[in-house]
Amino acid sequence: MSTAASTQIHLASRPEGWPTPENFRTVRVTLPELAPGQVRVANAFVSVDPYMRGRMNEGRSYVAPYALGATITGGAVGRVLESAADAVPVGAVVLHQHGWSNVVQDDAATFQVIPELPGVPLSLRLHILGMTGLTAYVGLTRIASLQPGETVFVSGAAGAVGSAVGQLARLLGASRVIGSAGSAAKVALLTGKYGFDEAFNYHDGDVSELLTQAAPDGIDVYFDNVGGDHLTAALDAFNDGGRAALCGAISTYNAEGPVPGPDNMSNIVTRGLTLRGFTLGNHLDLAGEFQQRMAGWFAEGRIAYDETIVDGIEGTVEAFLAMMRGANVGKMLVRVG
Amino acid sequence: MSTAASTQIHLASRPEGWPTPENFRTVRVTLPELAPGQVRVANAFVSVDPYMRGRMNEGRSYVAPYALGATITGGAVGRVLESAADAVPVGAVVLHQHGWSNVVQDDAATFQVIPELPGVPLSLRLHILGMTGLTAYVGLTRIASLQPGETVFVSGAAGAVGSAVGQLARLLGASRVIGSAGSAAKVALLTGKYGFDEAFNYHDGDVSELLTQAAPDGIDVYFDNVGGDHLTAALDAFNDGGRAALCGAISTYNAEGPVPGPDNMSNIVTRGLTLRGFTLGNHLDLAGEFQQRMAGWFAEGRIAYDETIVDGIEGTVEAFLAMMRGANVGKMLVRVG
């Protein structure tokens, strides 16, 4: 038993509009010796995700707002360094929600031991084989009730969730998969590596017009990561009985005031549409089913992925801000020392 | 066999914004002798409904837009005057969609013979025991998946659909029913005759604040007849997992341009809400179940209703315009001849 140094990223102040480095503080602390029942974990990868922006605000969000002056919590994967709990032995790989630090210790019950999969990088447990993939799966199956033969549109399609949505939609039987992204390089990635039928760069014009060109026969399912004019475009493109899974609205996260909703909500009535929002915490009962199916698809080589990696826990804020600007391709992660 | 005079109300021009009498034309025609397979019907009551405003516009609506220079179609109930079809004999009571005229003739297949119910006025077959009641039933059961013990909010609650929603919600097990209406008299009607737990006049202040006062513990189901600030208020008041049945948005029907949607759409994600629109035509499979249950409740004296009646087919436009202004209590109807 010993003490240990930990570098943590704290929320220093609540962002107004776009976050800046000044909203965060890097803090070095000495962790005390483990108490009985605790474990100490060296993180391998730490996740930065769009939803975190919401938790930086005051008021009701996914869960409680982040506390000022405390480590920003979120998904991470690491290995047990020291243990005072038999169930979580030294050397075990664990998933946890302790967030933005390089070394963390807490009660063993707050860490989930996961089996190491031969040839599978640990980072994937934070995205395509983890919460990111599960988010795509829940949205398509439970929330949007995707049926074989349908046309699916996903926004933010080159992002972590979006690229999983496009591939899972195909594997679940969609006949046509359309994505939007914010650069020509990302569009090429979508129609190439990720096998989308159509993709467009939303900077190239009016999103409704671009979507109509990409989906002349309309869409049945929309997986929304973006909100704003993308949701409006989807409401115009929906066939009767269309369903939207609303996962997030990165276009609005940094707005300093209320953002007006789509100006074509009347389509919801006339076309019999369903808009359903979700956060993953209410749908973890699908995790087992997802892991089984996804492991099979992954083993068959049917799942592509990208990662954008920033090295060092001190780069976490930079990684988060770059992800909010859309600088990442695939999952944005911090690789810890 | 003989010819017959018919007075019809035609759409003369498409309204821009609020409709005016000049958008309509009263036309007197002579109907020819019946062809084989046709019947002639003298209407008893003709329905004027909010959705008709949508069909007066060009472009995609519930169904095709109304044709210019033709009778405005919609629900009506009448009695067969002459018949050249065995299945629809003289004297039978029929429901049909031929709309705004006093006498109509067409193929027998376009008329639905319904049994006369002792002591039940024919007018009710156009509302509480007809499409209006079915609309409320479909919205609460299939669209919003109302569960016993939940809190229901309905806007436009003193209207035809709204007053049915409030009563059916209670009969289906809601623990608390809240309504909004546009006058103090209507509010008194809601909490009196219709048995709502709470009601408010939306002219009395900010709708979100009024709803929060009426539903301090939040709402689970919202039946939307109004749209606009009522939908925004509901999104703020929803408990996690709340569901909205979007039936119409009378607040927006006469807008001359696009109407921005709610500025709090993010609640859909964070609270896991579902917004689902519907038009009755896709849910007529529930008609049998509805009629059976509703007839039972009605016979037990558990259903109250109101009608606002305008006399004479020439008064149809006046009735429609008054309904759009909210001048009616309960179902607005035209009593013919």
TrEMBL record, chains A, B:
Where's the Enoyl reductase (ER) domain? 19-334
List the keywords (alphabetical). Answer: Oxidoreductase
Pfam families reported for this sequence: ADH_N_2, ADH_zinc_N
Q: Which CDD domains match?
A: PGDH (cd05288)
PANTHER family xrefs: PROSTAGLANDIN REDUCTASE, PROSTAGLANDIN REDUCTASE 1
Please report the name of this protein according to its UniProt entry: NADP-dependent oxidoreductase
Kindly list the organism's lineage. Bacteria, Bacillati, Actinomycetota, Actinomycetes, Propionibacteriales
